[in-house]
Each structure stands twice: as C-alpha cells, then as structure tokens.
Write a structure and sequence with these properties.
heterotrimer, A mainly alpha, B mainly alpha, C alpha/beta, A: mainly alpha, globular, B: two-stranded antiparallel sheet, 11 helices, 2 strands
C-alpha cells in the first residue's frame, strides 16, 4: 500500500484523524479557558448551522431552528435529572426524541408554502419555549440545573473542558461527514431538484414531502444531539437560552459563511460569530444591536458569505455550486 | 364574567390593529415583516419618552410616536428592503437584523426590565357583580375608532383605493398610473403606525419590556396565517378567534394559554391550508 | 387494449368549466395529437392526467388501473412522463447533470446506501451515467453535455426536457407544446425521434399548435374547444371536419383566446 497523500487515500484519512486529535489535545493543554469555550461554541454552532442549511437545500427556510436545541437540551435534562439515566444514553435518546418530534411536526408543516412554513416554524419554536416555561416539572422559568457531570472515559475527563472539546468536535465531524456526503451524493442532487422546483421534481417521480421530512429529521437529530450535550456541558438550562435570537444565530452562521457550501460555510461563519460574540464588550443589548446591524451589512455587502471572498482572491470564475433557489 | 368579555373585546380589537398592520406591510413587502413586533415595542417606548420623560399630553405623544416609528418603518422599507429586489431570503435576514437591532437598542437605552405605561384614563366601574376597568374600555374604543377610520380610508379615499389596488396586483396598478413606490412607503408607514397604536394601547393594559416584540410578532403571525395572508377581513375575524384563546383561554388554562391559539391555528390549517379567507400568496420570483 | 382511458373528465375553476366531460383513449404505440385554440383546456387535461390537478368528475385509467387522484410522483412512477409548456430547469447544472433527475425514479437504492456509498449505489449511478450517454446521443445533445442549462438555446432546452423524461422507461409520454421555440431543423429532428420512440413502444400524447407537424406525426388527432371534445379522427378526417375549421377560423377572426 503506497503512502500517497491524495485526497481520499487511507494515509490521508489517518493523517487527518491524527491532526484533529492533536489539535484537541493542544487546545486543552495550551489554550486559555476562554478560548477552549470558544472552540466548543464554534463546534456547536457549526453543527447547528449545517443542520439549518440542509433544510434550506430542500427549499424551506426554518426560522425556528432553536427549538431542536431546546427539545434536545430539556430531554437530556429530564432523562438525567428526573430519570437518572446515564449521560450517553440520555444523549442518544434526546437526539432520537428530537427526530421523532421533527417527524411528526414536519409531516404537517413542511407541506406549507415557503413563507407559511417560515413563520409557523418561528411560532412553533416560541410556543415550545413558552410551554416549557410554564411547566413546573421542567423547571418553569428557572429551568433545570445541577446536571450531573459525566464520568470519565479512560484519560478523558468531563469535569474540565477536555472531554467536552472531544465530544463536540466528534459530533461536529460526524455531522460534517454526514452532511457533506449527503450534499455530494444523489441525495443532495434530489434536495436541489426539490428546492428548485417541487413541481418538476414531482414529475420525475420524486415526492417532495418525503425528502423535506427526511432533511428536517436529520437536521433535528444533530441539532438535538448538540442541544443535549450543551445542556449537560453548561450544567443548567432555562427557556431564555432558546429564544428567537438563537434561531437567528443558526441562520447567521450559515449565511455569514456562505450558503453555497454545506460544510465550510457554517465552519467559517461559526468561527467569526463566536469570536465576535466572545470579545464583544458585554453591555446588555449591545450584542443584539451589533448582531442585527451585522446581519443587515452582510446581506447588503457580502450576500454570498465569507466563502465568496475566496473566489475574489483567487479570481476564479463561477466555481462554487449555485445555491438552489 | 363581564370583565373577561370586555377583556376579550379589548384584546381582539387591538389584535386587529396589529394584524391589519402586518397585513398591510405584507402586501407591500410580499414578505412577512419580522420586525413588525419590534416596531410595536419601539412605538410603545417612543410613547414612554414623549409622554413621561417629555411630559407631553397623551394625544401629542401618541401622534409623535406614530410619526417617529412609522417614519422609521418607511425608512427601512425604502432604503433597505426595496434595495433587495423582493428576494425572499435576503429580505427575511434583513428584517431579522432590524428586529434584533431594535431590541438591542431598547435594552441599551431603557434596560431589560418590565414596566408599565400610563393609560389614557384610569378607574373602574362596577356593573352588577363585575368590576370593569375604564382603561380597558377606552383602549377598546380607541382601537375601534382607528379601525373605522382605516376602513373608510381604504374603501373611499383615492389613496386608499390605490393601496388596495397595489396590494392586489402591483404590476397592474403601476400600469394604471399608480406610483407604486410611494404607495409601498405609505402602506408601510400606515401598517407600522397601526402597530404603534396597538403597542401603546396593549402595553398600557399588559406590560412593556424590550422583549415583547417577538410575542407580538408571533400573535400577528398566528392571526394572519389563520385569517389568510393578504386578507384584512380575514385578519379581523382571526383576531377575534385568537382573542378568545388569549382572553378566555388565559383565565381558564392559565399559563398554557398560548398552546390554545397555536393548536387552533394548526387545526384550521390542516383543513384550510391557506387560512380562513386565504388568497394564494404570490411570491415575487 | 387501451393504454390510457380517460372518461368524462371535468374540472371547473370558479364558475368556469375548463374541462367538460372529455373522453380520451390512447392505445399502445399510438401518437395522438391534442389540438385546439388557446384556452381550450389542453394543458388542464395534462395536469388532470398527471395528478397536478384533481378532477371534479371523471376517471383516468392506466392499463386498466384507476389512477385518478394519485399524486404526480406516484403517476410518474407508473410510467407516465410529461414535459411542461414553460421549460422548467434546475439552474446551475450542466445538461448531463440535469438528466440524472429523470433517472432517479428507477433507482432502488435509498438514502442509507447513498450515504455509505455502497457498491449497489455506485452501480446504479454508473447505470445512470451510461443511460445518460444513450439519451444524449439519441436526442442529439452530446455536444451540449457539459454546458450549463441556463445558457442553452431555447430549442435545445425543449430537447433536454424530453431527454430528462426518457431517462427512465416510460409507457406514455405527454408533451406540452414541445416545438415552441424550435427552428425547422430542430422540429424535423424532434419528429424523427418521436417516431423512433413510437417504434420502441412508447405512446405519445402531444399538445401542439404547429399544425403541419401534428398532421405528419400523429396517428390520430383530438380537437378540443372550450373544454369539450369537438372532433376526433385521423389527420385527413380532421382537416376536412367543418366543426374544427369553424373553431379555428372563429378564433382567428376574433380575439385571441385567453390561456
């Protein structure tokens, strides 16, 4: 077996894995806590952004994506705090529960035309949040806290950020591989057909609801997974953590990076957003104001996102895949 | 029982203002104005500044707030939204940005706390066993007067007819000589103005904080989805239905009342996917 | 044995009867023309057959099986292919890439196999590629295979629309004004190919205004006006039919029909 370093050779995969593990070990050992937190947040929002983007691919604009973070987080909270489930069980079950909710709700609302789906997804997110805030079993407006810390796995502990870095990066890689593979296979093409013209796609035997629900469920799975892990990482959650602002962040991250690229877009956008967020002098209200102005600026001056800067630098012509509109 | 009934009427009439405002802006912008709820909030805060900080009389403060925030809405429509050429996703992002910026600004200037607004009149009146608050009645009356004025304006005035024509078919209206850009700005101004009035009225009865915008947005969305996007009559009917959920529902179910309105809308959407009086919504390509 | 049997098909919009009690029969290996003035209801009939609209009355049967009211994708899977009056395209793709859309309906591997890139999946994609080669050659699109679809000339786009549909086996091909935007050479090229498809067993129902083409191509012609069938027969019979001449002349003299 030759040790060639082509894009997909086995040697390349090993090298990539080593690099990633090395990066995480480095991050934990050398980076200050603040930066480790930024890395974790970066991984989280990259995953959520990708999930949002895959729904966009299939032609729907989800304005309430935070609802899956919320459901995942609270499911984990209930499983661990009230039902004493072990962390890993809670993690997976929460993601599955989130997917089931997406399946049921999606089967109804994905049928709606673009603008209706948009607003209903927004309202759905708020309704879930308000319902949780009204329910004492779920901690009402104070939320759930004192999440148990997962036990260590070998040398990796969760009492510091170390285990969390590994976990969130691992989830990110899983999501990235899945979404990347979906985008570049026939599935991605089908999503593009349906996003571009559901009627034409139907005339080719493609039932647009099947694929919309499929994309929605997968998106919900990863977002719920991240939400569950996030809840335990933070140690506590409350309804204020899942407001419309956070649904917007999912969009910001993907749009800042560039919606043309399902993996690199959110990775870049999430990086910029999280660095920006962390270093913003924390005056109440400033974050929303500046984020709002940033959104407007991006839409006007850089509508294709950061990825399009790469093209300007390399003076390429139309290399990127065109966004299905 | 009578007091809940009055609460229902008051709430619904103000919902009508809010939802009609959104319908007007929707028919102009062809996209749901996500910042609508926050214009509602901004109007209430503007009123706070004019009436309490500057000490102006109620009517003057009301008028100034309408002009200020309505003008802001027109600015956003003309300078921002119009430049985006009707494309849906950029417009949504842009309006979300405006939403966020307004909320952030409100928190910066006024702080995140909940406060109350001075209503126009205060006091209560006893009718039988019920105690009715006059402020709620006055709020309902104001809303009713505004809606009546709006109705006559849209139906009989030349400007009003131009607005309706543009909302129905923009290209045809422009071919008939209507200055569609002016009408768009005007519709946006009126729609936002309605939100401001509703804001000043409802927050006197409820409370005000920088975060009420999203709730108002959700309510307006539920109403126009239920009534059918683009239909003012539909918004009127739907506002009363949602009003039932929020008033009677609130007193009966307590903290879960919003599930009632959401559930109702979902149920009706299953049967009538375009809303009660829905007009197929033409999206600009 | 009739392949497609349409009985008493009706559809109203508001108070307007767009299609009124239409009966159509298409036999295996036939080319049938559907003609009539603008606004006669022809495209509506297509939408009713292919599931894009639900009829108020009447039935559509395919090989004896009732397919009325099925979803468009279900009907497509049963072997009825259609093109649209306005070419709908998937922007940003090359000609070859957009052909794959038409092949998906015979691919049996699903989401998971695509995700894990199984050998069965790769085999199907290879078949799609090979089939796209065949179709590109057959439809004369080989020179355009790597061109982006939005820059294709109008006539070529129409060829592509049909090419997409025949990527998977079809029993019936419904063509909605395919000759629009084509020059003489393209028209005769397409008619040749349609005849070849017929010899391969495909039945064709074609809406067209280009009367010369219709007369040469079709075995049978059905004429509709104001949603009703007013005549049916061979091209010779139709050209001599007084009711048909009246319908067309009446239309030419008066205002152009609404569509």
């Amino acid at each position: 077996m030759k040790m060639t370093l082509t894009k997909t050779s086995p040697a390349m995969k090993v090298l990539t894995a080593v690099l990633i593990l090395g990066f995480i070990a480095f991050a934990h050992t050398f980076l200050p806590h603040r930066w480790q937190h930024i890395c974790i947040m970066w991984a989280i929002w990259s995953t959520v952004g990708m999930g949002w983007l895959v729904i966009l691919r299939v032609g729907q604009f989800s304005a309430g994506q935070a609802v899956f973070l919320c459901i995942g987080g609270y499911a984990a909270g209930v499983l661990m705090l009230k039902l004493n489930a072990p962390f890993w069980v809670a993690l997976v079950l929460s993601a599955i529960f989130c997917s089931v909710v997406a399946l049921i709700v999606g089967a109804i609302i994905l049928r709606l035309k673009g603008l209706y789906f948009l607003v209903i997804s927004l309202v759905f997110s708020e309704i879930v949040r308000l319902t949780i805030a009204a329910t004492d079993y779920l901690g009402a407006s104070e939320g759930l806290w004192d999440m148990p810390i997962p036990k260590k796995i070998g040398p990796v502990v969760f009492s510091t950020k170390q285990g969390w870095l590994y976990l969130f990066v691992f989830i990110l890689i899983l999501a990235a591989l899945t979404f990347w593979r979906m985008e570049n296979s026939r599935t991605g093409k089908i999503y593009a057909y349906i996003g571009a013209s559901p009627d034409l796609a139907q005339s080719f035997g493609l039932y647009f609801m099947k694929y919309r629900v499929q994309a929605y469920v997968i998106s919900a799975f990863f977002t719920g997974l991240v939400g569950a892990a996030l809840a335990v990482y933070l140690g506590a959650i409350n309804p204020e953590g899942f407001t419309f602002y956070y649904s917007l962040v999912a969009q910001i991250v993907a749009i800042l990076g560039g919606v043309g690229s399902i993996v690199w877009g959110p990775l870049l956008g999430s990086l910029l957003y999280n660095v920006f967020d962390e270093y913003l002098v924390y005056i109440p209200g400033a974050r929303s104001l500046l984020m709002g102005l940033l959104l407007i600026a991006v839409i006007f001056f850089l509508p294709e996102g950061l990825i399009s800067l790469k093209n300007s630098f390399l003076k390429k012509k139309g290399g990127n895949p065109v966004v299905p509109h | 029982m009578l007091d809940i009934f009055i609460f229902w009427i008051t709430l619904s009439l103000n919902y009508v203002l809010l939802a009609t405002g959104l319908t007007l802006t929707v028919s102009v912008m062809r996209v749901v104005n996500l910042a609508h709820g926050n214009f509602y909030m901004a109007g209430a805060y503007a009123f706070l500044v004019f009436s309490e900080r500057a000490g102006l009389p109620y009517g003057v403060a009301l008028l100034l707030s309408i002009l200020l925030v309505g003008g802001l809405g027109m600015f956003v429509e003309g300078k921002l939204y119009r430049r985006l050429g009707g494309r849906i996703e950029p417009s949504i992002i842009c309006m979300s940005g405006v939403l966020l910026a307004l909320e952030g600004l409100a928190v910066l200037i006024f702080g995140p706390d909940i406060r109350g607004l001075r209503p126009m009149v205060t006091g209560t009146v006893s009718v039988g066993r019920s105690v009715i608050s006059i402020e709620r009645v006055s709020v309902a009356i104001i809303a009713l007067l505004v809606m009546a004025a709006l109705y006559y304006f849209l139906k009989y005035s030349r400007l009003g007819k131009s607005i309706r024509a543009t909302a129905q078919d923009r290209e045809a209206a422009s071919l008939m000589g209507v200055n569609v850009n002016l009408i768009s700005s005007l519709s946006m101004g009126i729609g936002t103005g309605l939100a401001v009035i509703a804001g000043i009225q409802i927050t006197a009865v409820y409370h005000l904080s920088p975060f009420v915008g999203v709730g108002a947005l959700c309510t307006s969305i539920l109403i126009i989805t239920l009534g059918g996007m683009g239909s003012i009559l539909g918004a009127f009917l739907a506002a009363f239905i949602i009003g039932v959920c929020d008033s009677f529902g609130a007193s009966m179910i307590g903290r879960y009342y919003h599930l009632l309105s959401f559930g109702t809308v979902m149920l009706i959407l299953l049967v009538k996917p375009l809303g009660l009086l829905g007009i197929p919504f033409v999206e600009r390509k | 044995m009739s392949l497609i049997e349409i009985t008493n098909l009706s559809k109203s919009f508001g108070g307007n009867k767009a299609v009124d009690g239409v009966d159509i029969e298409i036999h295996s290996g036939e080319i049938v023309g559907l003609v009539g003035p603008n606004g006669a209801g022809k495209s509506t009939i297509f939408n009713l057959i292919t599931g894009f609209l639900r009829p108020d009355n009447g039935r559509v049967r395919l090989k004896g099986e009732n397919i009325t009211g099925l979803r468009p994708d279900q009907i497509a899977k049963k072997g009825i292919g259609r093109t649209f009056q306005l070419t709908l395209l998937f922007h940003g793709q090359t000609t070859r890439e957009s052909l794959y859309a038409g092949h998906v309906r015979v691919e049996k591997t699903g989401f998971w196999q695509a995700l894990f890139d199984t050998s069965a999946y790769r085999e199907e994609r290879k078949q799609a590629f090979e089939r796209s080669q065949e179709v590109l050659t057959f439809m004369g699109l080989a020179e355009w295979q790597d061109t982006l679809v939005n820059v294709l000339p109008c006539g070529i786009q129409r060829f592509l629309g049909i090419a997409q549909v025949i990527m998977s086996p079809v029993d019936v091909l419904l063509l909605d004004e395919p000759l629009t935007g084509m020059n003489e050479e393209e028209i005769s090229g397409l008619l040749d190919r349609l005849k070849k498809l017929q010899s391969q067993g495909v039945s064709i129902l074609i809406i067209e205004h280009h009367m010369k083409a219709v007369m040469t191509l079709c075995d049978r012609i059905i004429v509709v006006n104001f949603g009703k069938k007013i005549a049916e027969g061979t091209p010779e019979e139709i050209s001599r039919n007084p009711a048909v001449i009246e319908a067309y002349l009446g239309c030419k003299r008066g205002t152009a029909g609404a569509s």
